[in-house]
Amino acid sequence: MARPKNQGARRAELVQAAKQAIAGRGITGLRAVDVAAQTQLSPGTVAYYYPNLEDLIQEVHRDAVSRFYWNRLREIESIEDPRMKLGRIIRSGIPTSRDDIDFQALNELHTHAFRDEFHGRLMAELYAQEVSLYTSVLAEGVQRGCFVLKLPVESVASNLVALEDAYGLHFMGGAALSGDEIYRLIAANAEAMTGCVLGDGRG
Predict the structure, then answer these.
(1) Does 17 map to a domain?
(2) Quick check: 149 and 192 in contact, CB under 8 A?
(3) 115: in domain
(4) H or E, element range at 81
(5) Per residue in 16-33, pLDDT tens?
(6) FRET pair for 34, CA 20 to 30 Å: which of 19, 55, 97, 158?
(7) Which among 70, 93, 69 is positioned nearest to 190, based on CA atoms?
(8) pTM of the model
(9) CA 35/CA 47 separation, integer angstroms
C-alpha cells in the first residue's frame, strides 16, 4: 500500500472513526471492519495503520485526554482570576449536545473499564488528570485568598470531577437537563465548597 503524504491526518481520521464505531456498537469485539465502516477507507487500511486495534483504542484515549485535560489547561492559561478559571473548567467539561461523539465514546470506555484491566487503567489515568486540573486551580484560589474551602482541596476536586461525569452520563442518556442547567448545578456545588461566586465559564 502506498504511504500517504499526511499520515497524521489519516491517523486522526481513523481515531474519529473509531470513536464513532465505539459509540455506535460498543467497544467489546471491535473490529477493523467496524472502524472502516465509518470512513471511506478499507479494513486493510485500518489494519495497515493499526495492526493491533488496542493501539487505536489507546489513541482514542489520548484524544480524550487532549480534550478533557490538555485543551482545558490551555483554555485557562491566560485567565488571571481563579474564580473565572474554575468556571471555565466546569463549563468545558459539560456536553452541549447528545451528538457529542467524544462523550458518547467516553461513556462506552467507562463502561468497558469495569471489565478490562487495560481500559480501567486508562480511565483511572484520565480521572487523575482531571482531578489534578481542578486541584491546581482550587489551590491557586486558596493561595490568592479567593477560596475558603469547606473540605480538603483534593476532596473538592474529586467531587467536581464526579459531578461532571455523573451529569454528563445522565445528559447523554436522555435526562431532561440542558448544558446550562448542568453548569449551574455543578457551579452551585463549587461555590458552596469555595465560599465565593464563580464566573459563568463563558468567553
Answers:
(1) no
(2) no
(3) yes
(4) none
(5) 999 999 888 888 888 999
(6) 97
(7) 93
(8) 0.84
(9) 10
